[in-house]
Specification:
Length: 243
């Protein structure tokens, strides 16, 4: 993957800017990245807002050129989560991926990922935009001001990091895990994902809108969907928040 970063001082959302570039017909290759120092309207899953202190954290979007179908999008998010998690673990941060798109340290979110499939039939171009918000130098006061439990690399390691270098340190693990996904989809990630985001048998409650399901983790399906053993039988879950 040929990583090329375009840095901006201020943008509404890196996902939105990358999307615009894609639909303008720019010839984007896998590894094209839009990164920003201040993101003013960051978006998260389920129409949530992604808040990031200006100049403190990484907010970037990566283009992956692929003809993969919609069903393959969640497992690309999981591949990226494994890559980011690997970088954090190398710095001795005790992070773990959480289904479907988070990385947590002790139940506190350090990274969120939002992937969107894009298709331009006129140009026969398809791809997936992977938006990554990684809390790097956010202070504990700033983390406490967020309405959900949050943490940062600084809070966990006591060390401030250079944003550009932190982004570059992700290239190798992202290349590794996205490469595996490109070859064989979720089956290439299953073992690592289950080890890091499991364990099998753990009790989970999944909330999706008004629906709430409780059971034990039975595993992950062919596309990374969560398989829950409930009192009523096996349930396959494609989206939701797990607690
Ligand atoms: C989530 O946890 O729900 C996903 C959060 C994703 C945030 C990142 S920050 C860079 C990119 N641009 C956005 O507007 N969102 C993603």
């Amino acid at each position: 993957m040929n990583f090329q970063v375009e840095w901006f001082d201020k943008l509404a959302s890196t996902n939105a800017t990358l999307r615009e570039q894609f639909f303008q017909g720019l010839d984007l290759g896998s590894g094209h990245i839009i990164a920003v120092r201040e993101q003013t309207a960051g978006r998260g899953r389920q129409d949530r807002t992604w808040y990031s202190t200006p100049g403190q954290n990484l907010c970037f979007s990566l283009f992956v050129q692929t003809h993969a179908e919609l069903m393959a999008v969640p497992s690309l998010t999981m591949a990226v989560a494994l890559g980011v998690n690997e970088m954090l673990r190398a710095l001795r941060i005790r992070s773990a991926p959480k289904w479907p798109n988070d990385i947590l340290v002790d139940e506190k979110k350090i990274c969120g990922i939002l992937s969107e499939r894009v298709e331009n039939p006129a140009l026969n171009k398809k791809g997936i935009i992977v938006g990554i918000g990684l809390n790097v130098n956010m202070s504990s006061d700033e983390a406490e001001a967020i309405d959900r439990p949050a943490t940062s690399m600084l809070i966990e390691s006591g060390r401030a990091e250079n944003l550009q270098e932190t982004l570059e340190s992700l290239f190798h693990p992202l290349d590794h895990w996205i490469g595996k996904w490109e070859q064989s989809g979720f089956s290439a990630l299953r073992e690592e994902w289950t080890e890091k985001a499991g364990p099998i048998g753990k009790t989970l409650t999944v909330h999706d809108g008004d629906i709430k399901k409780t059971g034990t983790l039975a595993g992950f399906g062919d596309h990374g969907e969560l398989v829950l053993q409930t009192a009523g039988g096996i349930e396959t879950i494609w989206s939701g928040d797990v607690s």
